[in-house]
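Meet the record:
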Amino acid sequence: MELDYTVKRSAKRKKLTISVERDRTVVVHAPISASDEAIDKAVQSKRQWIYAKTHHEQKLHELPHPPGKEFVNGESALYLGKHYRIQIVDDETAKVHFGNGFTVPRRQASLRREALREWYLEQAREVILPRIDEQARNLGVQVRLVKIVDNRFRWGSCTPKDAVHINWRLIKAPMSVIDYVIVHELAHLLEENHTPRFWNIVRTHTAAMLKAKTWLKENGQLLEEEV
């Protein structure tokens, strides 16, 4: 069976790595000098590993709720790992407010999901961006650019140009999980691949690494829900 994959070359990259995204696409990150034949040979040598990853239960599992569903009074939404009740209120403002729970203006009836999404994005910028700066200082690395991004299939990424991108949906996860993803991406500035040294770096700077990985594995689908 033919194995489909996408190749992304970079002049800064020295080693070839293969990743399987959460939508089951296979991406090869390769140096500019890597030939098509060398890339294909590397992919073929990893066929068994790629098959296992693309058929992992978490990647095959469908979202528990279909995207686009409306939410109503009494439902809940995640924030920093906890569920909070949603209340639809008569309010002249057009913004979502958060206290002991979420309050959503009734005037946003047709745009409730969009309003909550904007609130999440704002909170992600306020909470996660300073956390990246703090963890970068802890690891002694310099980041050229940090961004909160909208990416359905990756929690974070570190580009060859030393830019760190974090998925805004992580604002729904516990802070320990957010820290794990941040440290994971920053560690790539010290060690490009997932070597034993890489994991030692992550483990040293993330006390709850295994717990955070387990939480993401078990609850990742919840973060992708629209509400």
Observations:
- The longest strand covers residues 82-89.
- Residues 57-71 have pLDDT under 50 and may be disordered.
- Residues 40 and 178 are 35 Å apart (CA to CA).
- The radius of gyration is 20 Å.
